[in-house]
Amino acid sequence: MKNRKGFTLMEMICVIAIIVFLSAVTLTSISQYVQKANDMRIGVDAHSAIVDEQQAVVNNYLTSTRATLPKQQTENYSIHPNAGNNDGNNGGNNGGGGAAPTEDNETEPPTEVTTEPTTEPTTEPTTEPTTEPTTEPTTEPAQGGKTVGNVTVDKFVTGDHEKGVVKVTGNGNTQILTLQTDAWNQAEFTIKKTGNSYTLTLPNNDKRYWMDGGKFPNLYCTYSYTLNADQRAYLKDVWGITLK
Q1: What is the pTM assigned to this prediction?
Q2: What is the pLDDT of residues 164-210, one digit of tens each?
């Protein structure tokens, strides 16, 4: 008998190791391919969902437009064929159909009823009450031409938002004038005559800046001015104050 030799243990281990390695590589490749296929399927599903939504929006728009304008047109057109058929079918029995005149008579009266009540009540109450109360208070004449001591005021302001002299008081050669720029800003300015010169004393606050800085320099530190010709002309032109 001949001796038959089998595989040794090392050879079997090497073969098994090679098989295991090839199986691992194959499974890894297969799992990657499956993952890519799943990703592609998810992308295709998302794209198809977007396409379906867009198609649904288009379909809704088309159905809404078809449900509004064409429906009204078909309803308008459907009245006249029926009226014609009624005229044709009942013309011999009733002497001409009356379907069309009844529809015309039902549509005309509502237009006449709706137009007349809406125009007349709205125009009359809105014009008359608004014009009369607003014009009368503004026509009141302003007082002016008052002289106190050496100061003459050409015009006293009467409106809350007018700029000018509100009142003037004083005795002898010293007069106190109340000036305002609006309803919330009033201040007292003093004018005193000494010989042939006049001295204007401004309040020690922000109201002194009502005077023109070009005519009254150093307003930030000076509150009393001996008036020159330009300053007296400024008081007359801007504030209506005349000095004798």
Answers
A1: 0.41
A2: 888 889 888 999 999 888 767 889 999 999 988 999 999 988 888 88
Residue among 144, 176, 145, 183 nearest 162 (CA): 183
Sole residue written with tokens 């595989």:
7
> Which DSSP letter does residue 28 get?
H
Summarize pLDDT for 128-142 with one digit per residue, the tens.
Answer: 545 554 444 443 444
- 181 CB burial (10 A radius; 0-12, 13-18, 19+): middle
Eight-state DSSP code of residue 178: E
99-138 and 9-94 helices cross at what angle (nearest 10)?
Answer: 100
Give the pLDDT band (50/70/90) at residue 74.
very low
Distance CA 99, CA 63 (A): 32
Tell me what pLDDT residue 159 has.
67
Rg of the chain (C-alpha set): 51
Q: In a 3-state reduction of DSSP, which class is residue 188?
A: strand
Cα separation, 163 vs 100, in Å, equals: 73
Q: Read off the tokens for 123.
A: 């125009």
- 168 SS3 class: strand
How far is residue 225 from each of residues 37, 178, 220, measured CA to CA in Å? 96, 18, 13
Question: Comparing 102-106, 123-127, 205-209, which segment has the lowest mean pLDDT?
Answer: 102-106
Amino acid sitting at position 113: V
Q: What does the alpha-carbon distance between residue 201 and residue 187 come to, in Å, rounded to a whole number?
A: 12
Question: Using CA atoms, how far apart are residues 91 and 82, in angstroms rounded to an integer?
Answer: 13
